[in-house]
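Pasting as-is:
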Amino acid sequence: MKAMILAAGRGERLRPLTLETPKPLLPVGGQPMIQWHIEALVRAGVPDIVINTAWLGERIEAELGDGTHLGARIEYSREGEPLETLGGIRRALPMLTETGSEFLVINGDVWTDFDMTTLAATPLGEDLDAHLVLVPNPAHHSGGDFALVNGRVTRDQGEWLTFAGISRLSRRLIDSAPGEEDRLGPVLGTACQQGRVSGHRHDGHWVDVGTPERLETARTLAGSGTAP
C-alpha cells in the first residue's frame, strides 16, 4: 500500500512566510512539517509515498529527494497549477494504485501526533469506500464536518467532529466521483449518505496549520516532547 501527502497548496494565509518557502517545509519541532508525516508513515510500515506539488514544488523535491535518508521511497505528482484535493488524488491515482486498490491520504498542512499504524494495517471492508480520522472541533471550525455513530461517519445524527485530513480511501471512491467534481469533501459526503464511510476519533494533538498563530501552536506542541 502507498500513501499520498497533499502538498500543492499556495499557503496564502501564511504569507509572507510562504512566499519563498512552501507550507509543508515550514519548520515545526526542528524539522519540516511534512517530515512528521513521512516519519509517521515509515513507522507504520508505509514507506512508499506520493507527494503532489505545485507552488514552489521544486523546493520540496530538493529538500526531500527520493526519501532514502528518511527510510521512505518518495515519488512526485507535479501539477503545475495546484489542483483541488480530489483533482490531485485523481491525477496521482495510477501511482497510488500500483500495489493495491487502497491508499492513505494525508493533508500536508496539518501537524498531529496521530499514530498511522492501525489505519495502515486495517483494510476497508467490502461495504466501505473510506475510513476517516476525526478530531474534536477546533475554535476556527466549531461546526465540524461529520458525525460519528457506532464507527460509521454520517451527517444525520450524533456528535459533529472535524475531518482531520487523514484517511484511508479506496480507488472505488475516486472512480465513482463525477468527472466535473474536483473536491474530495462532496464525494465523501455522498459516500456517507450511502453508509460507505467508517471512522474513528483522535483525541490527541492535531493542528490545522493555516495561519501564523496555528503554526506557533504546532511548534509549541512539537517542542513539548509529547509527540512521537
